[in-house]
Every structure is written in C-alpha cells, then in structure tokens.
Amino acid sequence: MSKAILSEADHLRVSEAVRAAEQGTAGEIVTIVTERSDRYQDVALWWSALFALLALAALAAFPEFYLLYFGWVSGGWISDLTLAEGFELALAVAGLKFVGSRLILQWMPLRLWMTPRFIKAQRVQGRAIRYFKVGAERRTVGRTGILLYLSTDEHLAEIVADEAIHKLVPQERWGEAMAALVTSAKDGRLADGMVAAIGAVGVILAEHFPRAADDVNELPDRLIEL
Fold this sequence. Notes:
Layout (H helix, E strand, L loop, with lengths): L7 H15 L5 E7 L6 H21 L1 H11 L9 H22 L3 H6 L3 H19 L9 E7 L4 E6 L1 H6 L6 H12 L3 H19 L15 E2 L1
Parallel strand pairs: 1-2, 1-4
Antiparallel strand pairs: 2-3
C-alpha cells in the first residue's frame, strides 16, 4: 500500500475548508490530490531513442576514434572492419545506448525532470478533466460542480468547472487559487495550499452562485487522494 500524501489531520482540514466555502454558495467543490498524473513512459522511450541516434551520429562523425577505442577494449582483435561488421558495430552501439538510457530513466525523478513542462501540463490537465467527467460533471442540479485537482510530483494544479460555472466565470478568475495551490505545493505545504485555494474558489462561486435557502449538498466534501 502506498504512503498517504496527506495526513488524516490534513484531510480533515481540507474537508472542513470545503464545507466552509460551500456555506455561501450553491457551487459544489470537489478536491483531488494525487502523487502524479502520468508515468511518462513514452517520454523515456523518446529520450532513449534520441540518445541512440546521437550515438550513431557520433560514430559516423568520429569513426577512427571508435575503432581505436574498440581495438583497445578488444586487445587488438578489432582493426579493419568489413561493411557488414561496421553495421553490426553501429547496431550494437545504438542498442546499448538505447537500453542503457531506458534503464537509467526508470528512475522516476530523472524521468520527470527530463519531461518538458508543457507535456506535464497537458497530462495533468487531461487527467483532471477525466476525473471531473467521472466524478463531478452533470452531477449537480444547477451544473455547479467544480474540481480542484493537484498533482504533487509535477507541482501543477488544475481547476475544472461544470457548464454553468464555465459560462459565467472566465478562466483567468481562478488565477489566485491556482497560485496559492502551486506555491504551497512547491514548498511542501500541500494542505495549506488546498485550504487557501478552496477559500479563493468559494469567494468566486459565492459571487455568481449564492446559496439558496433550500440548497442541499450534492457532492462529497472529503478530499479524495489517489
């Protein structure tokens, strides 16, 4: 069983922040925190293929160096190569470079570091939208569900809103909530960031969707950890 991202006390803080924010609005806030949104296996493959191609390019650019090196390693057994042997050598170099790079990139921190930020942003956004469609979209009478999603390893967050909210609130309005969440996540204060972001979201929702006297809680307030 994987280690929890947030403590039980932090879960309670976030859940209470959701309940407090919803006291003034008909909006329904769903919170999800996950360690990461993708394993980026394809990124590791692309990097490994690139390193293999670079090894072939180096072999083509400096063949004498490689021949001397392999001659020294083989104790003089490799000197002049036939065309077929040259291709075999190139294939061996590329294969070893690919396999070696792929093994090194099994280490997730390095793989994440080598993943371009725009790819991480796309994967986080895509995962947030999928979770929203499953857990919040069209699950409220007024279409007022909103998801606050944090992916900790990428230090990225997303806010996904249902139709009614999306029509009235421009995406730029969520900037303060996003900034509070991402900044705190980078500092390791995940619960503080979630609480601050929930408060900012609640203020915006209250402006456009004030709570009616007969309002009922339609979505769970608890923090979901994946």
